[in-house]
């Protein structure tokens, strides 16, 4: 409702009409209430939005739609009239329309890419009412509690629990159960913290680990966890089949033989379970409830049976109801047949590994964040109490050894001290020498004997195995589908597709079925069982470590709603899980680690294109900040000097040779920042600059260039470069060397451009940077070629789109667009600067080849170093670094130095000694003594012709005219300047002649760079020196250090 106190005037912002942005994205006509203005809150209209959940939806949302808040540019520019400048700054505003002072905003919904999965798979999306009718979502009881209890209550409960307490005694048996509960409880606490730190989708343990530790850990554990669940189906089904075959054997109904009967029953069982699973989660849940009822009746049957007075038959088998003496005797351990505490623990612990049954179907839960913690913790508590209760009841009623013979009673007058059974009239001392068939140690069917109704225990055993198999059969495809959806293993993406309202992974079910049948047919599961247990434990360990890692990173995004966890307990849980892995089976633990490491390396190498904001990223950032701060507290030392380069590439891909050479210098061991200056008003350049930051950094990463991209907007190139030189870097991670290309077009550009370029060199020296200038005779800039290629690609795309449109709509509908679009394409074709001349094409071809020369391995050759001036050693260090790189490894160094006539040998020996102390090898040292020889007259003539357009010629004018010329053209070269620097000019020309004589075949020439004194040497004269020095020679680096030592021979 509008505020009655608000009175509109012409100066007020316009009202905003309700627009289609509130559509929920499902095409059903429903709208979400995201108001375009907040007039009722503030009393006036504004483009600002009130906080709303739709603004915070994941950009990669499966539904493909999210609300977008206005950008800062829109808030700044929205009330200006739509103009070309506004469209350039913020294209989204161009889609808005202004009518009679009213503004319609249509771009509040993100047009995300489509997805091959259902919208309701995205728990951030609001599912439509129509869809909700057919989707099955479970609460915490049916979805988590029941599944976890059924998975934890396995055959161990009825078959092996009595044996465990017979071997370990009730004292150590309690410790075994409590220790197992500690491992699972710590894991559950960690899992609860992780799953309450944001929306949880399908994938269970894989989803939790991958979103916490990243795709490397998640992808490796997800694959083996899904495989473990698939093989677990076979294990549980074989357990069920063995019980069935035992019944067939008792009733003399064996079909073929025991082994093949197990296979036959197992395959039939898996087919039935597959049918239940494929029928849908609702049917599977109903089956689980029925199995739970049977299991609860079987458990109650045990408790009831222990309270029923023992019959003579049961007494002969060692059951005497509750007796304190039996409890006392069974309290202490009695390990036999080589068993130890750890071996018995290893046998029991797999019974506790069902705690992820609920988390594995997280995508089918109504509220995974609330259901997983409470359901799993309660399941651990209930099952733990059940295990302890049944074990203690049996330990208090059944002795360890019994013969089952009714005649083994104590003869009157005979002594009996074998066991507490003597107190009840039975002498089982024969068990001391002969293995008996009954008692805790010998009879795996103690629960059946103790129970009130034996067949119900058999039904409970069936229920325990079938429920665990069914839970694993559902878990494996769900986890595997989530893994495949993320496309970490591209070859497995086929299994990502879901079917039906619940997005059921039918293909995953079939794959799980095939794996389960294969292992059932193998029928040798004793070897694979410990590996599967270790796979589950590896998942537990990583869940605990994920919680610890996220807490350790202290990321502001780590805000779990579940507060009852501790990072150090999580770390302890992870270590405990790893220890238990070795306790269960050391070689299986090693194999598990080996498989996980292999998959981790594989995913790391493949680098899947995902970014989940993992704690690994957060810890990397924290470590980087801490390391940078640590470096800031340490003074630089010459031994640790390395070139930290700021490279003036512009857009990096436009000067590939410059980038490749800088990359060869820094590689993975030094800082490399590629820089770009957007010349023009900052507001006009801001949009292009922001887009370039992300695009160019992405391009560098794709090209595997270990470099950063930095850009500034400035009114001119020099000011922008000056900003970069002053502000780049962080602490000790600051650039110390500027790398730039030679300005090849200095003779044809405006004078201001030359002054800016030389000014950057002066600024670099002022800021004490070393300078490296690269010149290639063909040039460095290939931007015009890239632009032509991009324009041609755009034309081809548009042409293809036009053809597709005509083909789809028919010529009758499409022809009205044909001539209009064809005219535009024709205009673009003529406007595009595509080289037609064969000469131009050859020049461009040579330019492209020259620009890519540093990408290739250089082969055998030389790097000629003309170390003419001592600049601190940078001129010598750079070529040495290059020779350590793989691409330059076959190149040898040749050193050229200046020497005095008559002292050539002495100068050479001194340089040899210096290089030996520096531990830098070279193939040859050449001492040049004729630098002072005047260059050829032809070179002089060429040089004079080159600088002629830039000379003032004030010597031929009178004083007044000369003064006027100086004021009018202060940048020109004066006659006095030429005379004053004639020797230096002569040196550059002579040096070029020597380069052509001695280094014409070199792969790379590195020359000490001449310095132009500020205020003394004009910019054009300095550029002429550099031009004359480097013309007609192989690729040349002009290098000048900052005259601080970068080499030392001290240890």
From TrEMBL:
Coiled coil: none annotated. GO terms for molecular function: sodium:potassium:chloride symporter activity. GO terms for cellular component: apical plasma membrane. Residues 1-13 have a biased composition (Basic and acidic residues). The chain crosses the membrane at residues 144-165, 171-196, 217-238, 262-282, 289-310, 341-362, 374-399, 453-476, 509-529, 535-553, 565-588. It is found in: Cell membrane. Residues 34-83 form the Amino acid permease N-terminal domain. Residues 1-32 are annotated as: Disordered. Residues 655-1051 form the SLC12A transporter C-terminal domain. Keywords: Cell membrane, Chloride, Glycoprotein, Ion transport, Membrane, Phosphoprotein, Potassium, Potassium transport, Sodium, Sodium transport, Symport, Transmembrane, Transmembrane helix, Transport. GO terms for biological process: cell volume homeostasis; chloride ion homeostasis; potassium ion homeostasis; potassium ion import across plasma membrane; sodium ion homeostasis. It is a multi-pass membrane protein. The keyword Kinase does not apply. InterPro entries: AA-permease/SLC12A_dom, AA_permease_N, SLC12_C, SLC12A1/SLC12A2, SLC12A_fam. It catalyses: K(+)(out) + 2 chloride(out) + Na(+)(out) = K(+)(in) + 2 chloride(in) + Na(+)(in). Residues 143-646 form the Amino acid permease/ SLC12A domain. Belongs to the SLC12A transporter family. PANTHER family: SOLUTE CARRIER FAMILY 12 MEMBER 1, SOLUTE CARRIER FAMILY 12, CATION COTRANSPORTERS. This is Solute carrier family 12 member 1. It comes from Electrophorus electricus (Electric eel).
């Amino acid at each position: 409702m509008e505020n009655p106190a608000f009175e509109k005037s012409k100066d007020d912002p316009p009202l905003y009409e309700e627009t289609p942005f509130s559509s929920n994205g499902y095409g059903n006509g429903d709208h979400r209430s995201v108001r375009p203005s907040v007039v009722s809150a503030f009393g006036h209209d504004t483009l600002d939005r009130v906080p709303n959940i739709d603004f915070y939806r994941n950009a990669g949302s499966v539904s493909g739609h999210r609300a977008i808040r206005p950008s800062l540019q829109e808030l700044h520019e929205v009330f200006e009239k739509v103009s070309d400048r506004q469209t350039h700054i913020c294209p989204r505003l161009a889609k808005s329309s202004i009518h009679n002072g009213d503004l319609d905003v249509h771009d509040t919904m993100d047009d995300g890419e489509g997805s091959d999965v259902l919208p309701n798979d995205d728990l951030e999306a609001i599912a439509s009412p129509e869809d909700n009718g057919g989707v099955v979502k479970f609460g915490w009881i049916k979805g988590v509690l029941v599944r976890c209890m059924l998975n934890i209550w396995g055959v161990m409960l009825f078959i092996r629990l009595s044996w465990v307490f017979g071997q370990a005694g009730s004292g150590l048996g309690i410790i075994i159960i409590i220790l197992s509960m500690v491992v699972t409880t710590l894991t559950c606490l960690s899992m609860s913290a992780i799953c309450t730190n944001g929306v949880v989708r399908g994938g269970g343990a894989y989803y939790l680990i991958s979103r916490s530790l990243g795709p490397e850990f998640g992808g490796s554990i997800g694959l083996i966890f899904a495989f473990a669940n698939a093989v677990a189906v076979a294990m549980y089904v074989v357990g069920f089949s063995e019980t069935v075959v035992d019944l067939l054997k008792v009733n003399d109904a064996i079909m073929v033989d025991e082994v093949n009967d197990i296979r036959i029953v197992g395959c039939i069982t898996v087919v039935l379970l597959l049918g239940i699973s494929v029928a849908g989660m609702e049917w599977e849940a109903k089956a689980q409830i029925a199995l739970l009822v049977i299991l609860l009746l079987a458990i109650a049957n045990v408790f009831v049976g222990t309270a029923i007075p023992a019959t003579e038959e049961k007494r002969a088998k060692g059951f005497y109801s509750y007796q304190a003496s039996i409890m006392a005797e069974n309290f202490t351990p009695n390990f036999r047949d080589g068993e130890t505490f750890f071996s018995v623990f290893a046998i029991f612990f797999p019974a506790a590994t069902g705690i992820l049954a609920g988390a594995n179907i997280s995508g089918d839960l109504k509220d995974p964040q609330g259901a997983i913690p409470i359901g799993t913790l309660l399941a651990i508590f209930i099952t733990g109490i059940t295990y302890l209760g049944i074990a203690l009841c049996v330990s208090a009623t059944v002795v360890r050894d019994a013969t089952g013979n009714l005649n083994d009673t104590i003869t009157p007058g005979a002594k009996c001290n074998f066991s507490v059974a003597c107190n009840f009239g039975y002498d089982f001392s024969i068990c001391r020498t002969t293995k008996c068939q009954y008692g805790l140690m010998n009879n795996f069917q103690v629960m059946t004997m103790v129970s009130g109704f034996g067949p119900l225990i058999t039904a409970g055993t069936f229920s325990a195995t079938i429920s665990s198999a069914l839970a694993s059969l559902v878990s494996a495809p769900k986890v595997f589908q989530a893994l495949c959806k993320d496309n970490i293993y591209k070859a497995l993406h086929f299994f990502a597709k879901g079917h039906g309202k619940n997005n059921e992974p039918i293909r995953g079910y079939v794959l799980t079925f095939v794996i389960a049948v294969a292992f059932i047919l193998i029928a040798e599961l004793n070897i694979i069982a410990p590996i599967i247990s270790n796979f589950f434990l590896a998942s537990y360990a990583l869940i605990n470590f994920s919680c610890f890692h996220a807490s350790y990173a202290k990321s502001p995004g780590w805000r779990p709603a579940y507060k009852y966890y501790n990072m150090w307990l999580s770390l302890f849980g992870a270590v405990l899980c790893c220890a238990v892995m070795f306790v269960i089976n050391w070689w299986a633990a090693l194999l598990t680690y080996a498989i996980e490491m292999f998959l981790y390396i594989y995913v790391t190498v493949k680098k899947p294109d995902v970014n989940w904001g993992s704690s690994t990223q957060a810890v990397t950032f924290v470590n980087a900040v801490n390391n940078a701060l640590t470096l800031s507290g340490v003074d630089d030392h010459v031994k640790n000097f390395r070139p930290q380069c700021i490279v003036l590439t512009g857009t990096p891909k436009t000067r590939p040779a410059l980038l490749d050479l800088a990359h060869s210098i820094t590689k993975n061991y030094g800082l490399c920042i590629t820089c770009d200056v957007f010349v023009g008003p900052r507001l006009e350049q801001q949009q292009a600059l922001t887009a370039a930051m992300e695009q160019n950094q992405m391009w560098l990463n794709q090209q595997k260039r270990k470099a950063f991209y930095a850009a500034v907007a400035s009114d001119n190139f020099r000011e922008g470069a000056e900003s970069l030189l002053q502000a780049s870097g962080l602490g000790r991670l600051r650039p110390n060397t500027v790398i730039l290309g030679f300005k090849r077009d200095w003779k044809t550009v405006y004078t201001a451009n030359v002054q800016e370029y030389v000014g950057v060199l002066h600024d670099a020296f002022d800021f004490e940077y070393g300078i490296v200038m690269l010149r290639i005779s063909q040039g460095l800039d290939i931007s015009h070629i890239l632009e032509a290629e991009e324009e041609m690609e755009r034309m081809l795309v548009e042409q293809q789109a036009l053809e597709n449109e005509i083909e789809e709509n028919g010529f009758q509908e499409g022809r009205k667009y044909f001539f209009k679009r064809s005219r535009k394409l024709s205009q673009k074709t003529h406007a595009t600067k595509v080289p037609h001349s064969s000469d131009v094409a050859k020049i461009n071809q040579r330019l492209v080849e020259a620009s890519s020369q540093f990408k290739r391995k250089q082969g055998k050759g030389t790097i000629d170093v003309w170390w003419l001036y001592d600049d601190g050693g940078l001129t010598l260090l750079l070529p040495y670094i290059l020779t350590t790189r793989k691409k330059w490894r076959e190149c040898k160094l040749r050193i050229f130095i200046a020497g005095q006539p008559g002292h050539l040998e002495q100068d050479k020996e001194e340089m040899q000694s210096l290089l030996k102390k520096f531990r830098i090898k070279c193939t040859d040292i050449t001492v040049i003594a004729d630098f002072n020889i005047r260059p050829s007259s032809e070179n002089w003539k060429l040089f004079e012709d080159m600088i002629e357009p830039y000379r003032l010629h004030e010597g031929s004018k009178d004083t007044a005219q000369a003064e006027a010329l100086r004021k009018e053209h202060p940048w020109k070269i004066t006659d006095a300047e030429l005379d004053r620097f004639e020797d230096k000019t002569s040196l550059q020309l002579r040096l070029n002649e020597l380069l052509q004589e001695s280094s014409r075949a070199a792969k790379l020439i590195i020359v000490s760079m001449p310095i132009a004194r500020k205020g003394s040497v004009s910019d054009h004269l300095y550029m002429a020196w550099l031009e004359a020095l480097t013309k007609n020679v192989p690729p040349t680096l002009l290098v000048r250090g900052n005259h601080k030592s970068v080499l030392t021979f001290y240890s």
